[in-house]
Amino acid sequence: MSKVKSEIEILKKVQELDRDLYLATERLNEIPEEVSALKQKLEGEKNRLKELEAALKSCQLKQKEKEGELGQKEGQVKKLDGQLSQVKTNKEYSALQQEIASLKADNSLLEEGILKAMDEVEAANEEVRKERDHLKQREKDYGTLESELKEKEKKFKESVETLRKQRQEILTQVDPEIRTMYDAVVQKRQGIALAKVVGETCGVCKIKLRAQILNEVMGGQSLVACENCLRFLYIEEVAPAS
In what order do the strands lie in the sheet with 194-198? Predict the structure, then answer.
């Protein structure tokens, strides 16, 4: 077996680690984004509660304003009632009565408005109560999910560290120049730097290989790259029949 073919056999072992390393690293990099998405979603839940609380305050203020207006008009009615006994002409008496009647009509509408406002306050209170209960449960759920993600992150970090150490140990058996070339392709090709020749095609990108490329791969005198995906090509050695 030529030196290059021998080193290809070693690199095939490294590639198994690199494939796992790429997947573990990719998953590790996704976790902070998932944690951030959880926090943003929870923040959205909190903002929803704030909006409901603001709506409740608005309803309460509306009710209070109407009650204040009603109290003011009732005071005016009481004052005018007291003036009825003091007027000296029927015309003045009639004018006061009309004013009192108009105020009482307004008060009747205000009372209806207050009842409606009270219903709105009660409904808004119920919405706030439900949302607070919902948020409390969501905070608990998000806390659990975040803890699970942090635990996964820890395990992936440990896995990445272990895989890196293992690949480094194996790569010490490879010529430094070939190792450098291999590492460069691994970085560009998502952890897969080797491609098995299948028939006359690259086993990864499926492009048909030129006859010259196939001959160079079979010769095993140098690393040969696929002209399409740039991965290093190899032919699986067939074990002799026993």
Answer: 201-202, 194-198, 232-234
